[in-house]
Amino acid sequence: MSDAETPAQYVASLPADRQRIIKKLRTHIRRGLPHGFKEMMSYGMLGYVVPLSFYPAGYHCKKDTPSPFMNLASQKQYVVVCRMG
Description:
Elements: H1 7-12, H2 16-32, E1 38-42, E2 45-50, E3 67-74, E4 79-83
Antiparallel strand pairs: 1-2, 2-3, 3-4
């Protein structure tokens, strides 16, 4: 989990070898995101979300939180990509 406030800060905080991997994955993910979905920090990692303007009900019982679509993070020993259904 990261304390970064923006995706750019998150990527900049990573070691150089992880930055290369995350930047490459981030480029491909953003290229394939459905129109209007947004990148933001979510749960201490890069989050790709369904904005409240598309789905105003929000995530689960949190009406002010966009619904998660995908997350990308650099962990201690690996890089993780989580896709929500």
